[in-house]
């Protein structure tokens, strides 16, 4: 009979015997960094940068997060953790997006030149529509949502088992999207 190795949290190094906190395996990592306490993972999310809140930095697996509505008595004011530089970045992104939209409309009406608008669109794509900025805004939205929703992380092993049982032409992302659409 094969004995299962004890679970160790990769953040606090606690074991199952140390306390009664629940474990989750949120990504493809194996070995000593396989498991993490749910509470430790949420604490990590509150301190980590935008990209690290979306995916594991070791194995590059995207975390699958589920939102459950809290009782209205548990709603809180969100902690956004935005400093002056963050407010400046958001303001700049909004200004560039606004100018890009106005310029595109003006170009379509014939009042703006195409060369100027191509430069503005390139600037928007490089600075505003980058992967890092999408992660930043996604996490900002998640922090806002966490004030009224309970956020839980799906276990990677359970996702992998479900994926293995799917027909070969279906993928986890399609099922996740369709289940979200069906629940609305």
UniProtKB/TrEMBL annotation:
GO terms (molecular function) for this protein are: zinc ion binding
Q: What is its main location?
A: membrane
Q: Name one GO cellular component term.
A: membrane
Name the keywords, alphabetized. Answer: Membrane, Metal-binding, Transmembrane, Transmembrane helix, Zinc, Zinc-finger
Where, per UniProt, does this protein localize? Answer: Membrane
SUPFAM superfamilies referenced in this protein's UniProt entry, alphabetically: RING/U-box
Indicate yes or no for the key word tRNA processing. Answer: no
Record bears the keyword Transmembrane helix: yes
| InterPro entries the record matches | Znf_RING-CH, Znf_RING/FYVE/PHD
| Superkingdom per UniProt | Eukaryota
Membrane topology, as annotated: Multi-pass membrane protein
In the UniProt record, the signal sequence range is none
Where does the RING-CH-type domain lie? Answer: 1-66
Q: What is this protein called?
A: E3 ubiquitin-protein ligase MARCHF5
Lineage of the organism: Eukaryota, Metazoa, Ecdysozoa, Nematoda, Chromadorea
């Amino acid at each position: 009979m094969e004995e299962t190795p004890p679970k160790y949290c990769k953040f606090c190094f606690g074991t199952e015997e140390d306390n009664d906190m629940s474990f989750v395996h949120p990504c493809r990592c194996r070995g000593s960094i396989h498991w993490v306490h749910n509470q430790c993972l949420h604490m990590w999310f509150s301190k980590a940068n935008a990209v690290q809140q979306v995916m594991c930095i070791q194995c590059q697996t995207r975390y699958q997060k589920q939102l459950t509505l809290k009782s209205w008595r548990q709603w809180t004011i969100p902690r956004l953790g935005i400093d002056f530089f963050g407010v400046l970045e958001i303001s700049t992104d909004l200004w560039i997006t606004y100018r890009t939209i106005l310029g595109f409309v003006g170009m379509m009406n014939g009042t703006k030149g195409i060369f100027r608008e191509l430069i503005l669109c390139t600037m928007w794509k490089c600075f505003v529509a980058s992967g890092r900025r999408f992660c930043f805004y996604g996490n900002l939205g998640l922090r806002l949502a966490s004030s009224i929703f309970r956020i839980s992380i799906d276990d990677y092993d359970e996702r992998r088992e479900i994926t293995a049982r799917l027909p070969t032409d279906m993928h986890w992302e399609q099922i996740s999207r369709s289940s979200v659409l069906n629940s609305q």
